[in-house]
Design goal:
This protein has one domain. It is built from 7 helices and no strands. Helix 3 runs parallel beside helix 5.
Length: 158
């Protein structure tokens, strides 16, 4: 289980860093993460682990695919959440969704605050529309949500 924990943490940290630095999450992180999730969960828990990994992957990938199809998220985010789902398995992927959403909200508010506070200060709200074009590093939110999931389940994982 410790190996699985380490793989998840490395994937989360490296993906969040990559999204911040180059605004993309490369396939050389996500695709091996998906494969590692299936292999490690099967090696540790057998067929129930493989089933948990597959369900986690399907939930993570499918849910974020909806946002991608509507233009609200990048393909790297979708593949990353699939990899996190494959590694965490079901039901921990659901907890990761919750923490990811909270982290995403925090990032959005942090990015919006300077523009909105300036708009209220000057009573000029035309610049609020510029927020629609703001890049949101959602890979960072996924990373934070995943690390929080690991922290809250540390005793069970180890």
């Amino acid at each position: 289980m410790l190996g699985l924990f380490i793989v998840i943490a490395i994937l989360a940290i490296s993906s969040g860093y990559s999204d911040l630095k180059v605004r993309r999450i490369p396939n050389f992180l996500t695709l091996p993460g998906i494969l590692a999730g299936f292999i490690l969960n099967f090696a540790i828990l057998g067929l129930p682990g493989l089933k948990s990994s597959a369900i986690g992957f399907l939930i993570g990938f499918s849910f974020f695919l909806i946002f991608y199809l509507f233009g609200g998220m990048g393909a790297g985010d979708v593949k990353l959440m699939g990899a996190i789902g494959a590694l965490l398995g079901y039901p921990l992927i659901l907890q990761s969704f919750l923490f990811t959403a909270i982290a995403g909200l925090g990032i959005v508010l942090a990015l919006m605050f300077p523009v909105i506070s300036y708009s209220f200060k000057t009573m000029n709200f035309s610049n609020i529309w510029s927020l629609r074009k703001t890049y949101i590093p959602y890979g960072l939110a996924i990373s934070i949500g995943t690390l929080l999931t690991l922290a809250f389940n540390l005793r069970a994982i180890l």
